[in-house]
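User: Can you write out an input/output pair for a complex, sequences first and structure second?

Assistant: Here is one pair. Inputs:
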Amino acid sequence: MNPEIVTQEAAAARRFGWSSLCVWAATGLSLEAAQGWKLSSYLDDELTRQLLRLGHAHGAVLSLMLLVYSSAGVPVLEQREDAGASVRKLLCAAALLIPVGFTLGAFGHSESDPGVGVLLVPVGALCLLAGLGQLALVSFRSR
Amino acid sequence: MLESVPNRPRVLMTAVLVVTLALALVAVRRGRSVAAELASARNLRSSQYVGSQQCKRCHAGHYASWQRTFHRTMTQEAGTRSVLGKFDGSTLDYMGVRARMHRGPLGEFLIDWSAGGAQRWQAQVVRTVGSHRYQQYLGKSADRYFRLPIAWDVEQRRFIHMNGAFLTPDPVLPAAGSSVERADYDRHVTRWNDNCVFCHNVHPNPGWDERRGQFTTQVAELGIACEACHGPGSQHVARNADPWRRYALHLTHVPDTSIRNPARLGARRSAEVCGRCHGQRISADIARVHRDGDPFIPGEELSAYSRPLAVDTTQNGVTGLFAPRFWRDGTARLTAYEYQGYLQSACRRSASFSCETCHAMHAGDPRAQLRPQREGDAACVACHSQFASTSARAAHSHHRADGPGGSCIACHMPSVVYGLVSVHLSHRIERPDPAQQARQGRPDACTLCHVDASRPWASSALAWWSRGANAGDSANTTASTPAVTEALLGGDPIERAVAAHALGQASAHFAPDYLGHVLGLLLDTLETDNYPAVRAIALRSLRAMLRRAHSPALHAVDCYEPTALPEARSSCLSQLRRVLGASAVVSADVDLRAALRARADTTAIEIGE
């Protein structure tokens, strides 16, 4: 496999990971500000608060996962024809859809259920499982 | 060295796409079946009651707002969080009997009664009823719960005897050194199983077995919880475990047929949900209700099972049994008849007018549960927008719009309803008509504020207004006996209670030199009225007057106890008169007083148990 492609894959995963981490860390800061300034629309609505926190937490953790992937995942897939580009795309999709789904679910929600934006979460979860499943499978086959 | 692995990106992406599309397809199919299910009517009779904890899981906000209400705490198991009274050895003396409230060795709440230094009987408090104004206590004997004769006055933070909370006269007074008869002491000890249970709990069933002479009383939940107004929830809980159904409901705003939402029942049905308890009724089949419970489920027609009590209601062919609970024109004069007031109100002509027009069960101050932004006149001008401006209200009311007389409620919902040792607003929203109301023997809004004015003055005032003149233009119109004086000295117990209440209101309007008359009337009531509840209301009015006047005599009132023996009351009042000064109090004319007292009615007003 062309080492340059492998390097490009790792760089692409790193770019997405750091950018995403930056965005979700900033989201965390805004949630802390809402807490600090006792923003009633945040504090008085338990479901909104829970969904925004889930969005922030999943965004940050999945961003870190992509950074780990750029170092530890790309080499596992370097023998593949696309150097793992499809797995990277699945993981990036997951890192985008899951936190965004939770965040959008915080808006327009009913008393008991998140808003329809939360439907992005299971789609993202499928992408995540497919990507991680690929990685797990390949790692078993590698020596 | 890594092993070469097959590259299947397209397969992978296709798989994700297929799964996503499959989920979308399932969603559409489920949505259709849910829509068909929602379109079909559902009979809640097959539902079971599940309890408010089940509701909390999905409706945390509504659960929290209900938790704040006095509905929730209407009936509770006795415990450190529910019992408000001070069971710390406090005592209450009533007619020679001493009640002592204390905790037992296991922390139980006990009341001991003793007379002449010897303990007579004891009861353990097992449940509480109420928490807003008064907290009553229930004891248990075999299969029966009984309301005990001692209650806790939440506002005054002290125990009271229940004989002082009902419109019944003093018992036969005990001879010096002895105590009141047990039957008199326990006059308001009532069986809970087939009385209080109905309106203070969810899905009450006395379970009366006539053959065995036993109760197997059950309630779905103590207190007024979610299912009292929304109906049994088992179908709702089971069906809404399905997320597709929930999202179909959220996104389409279609009513959920597995539960009742009073806000979506329509004004009449919605009011019936409240009317079940806030409108005393008589069942079509009382024996069945005692055996199987109250069959009404919210959303059904209340009249299918019972009819609201009215002034002319007959029971077993007897008419007039319930007449003392109403003014002669049919207006309710006891609380828990608000639904009757609603049915009689002119506002009901509006198709959208219901209890929820002014009240909200999940918002607002729990004390009156008024809808936010609908407090005071706001409730009225929400519909009667022509009176939104203060100038329009002033022109309409002939009173200053910012004064008590300019309030919509003061004239259209006067305080003529007795309940819980207080006087409350009438829920019959009507036009004031002093002449007509005088003929019906009921108080009118005008003279309840103008406490030094007579009924003829009030009657003619409206006529003057209609001619464009000012009521103040009249002469000698207050020459007749003031209506409140007539009622307080010569009325029946509710008229006297209403009059005593009116005298103490901040809105009470009278000439400055009439203050002595007001004090005299209240002191006379405290001394001679033989209804402790009327005396209690007069005491509250006197306190309010003295507090507003920053009178040093305020503390001299503290020795007065409405349920004390006459000698103790007289002794306290003598002391109070001395503090006030002889010139401050003007007694009513002796002949007038004697004539009015002679016609005072001594009927006991049964609340309706």
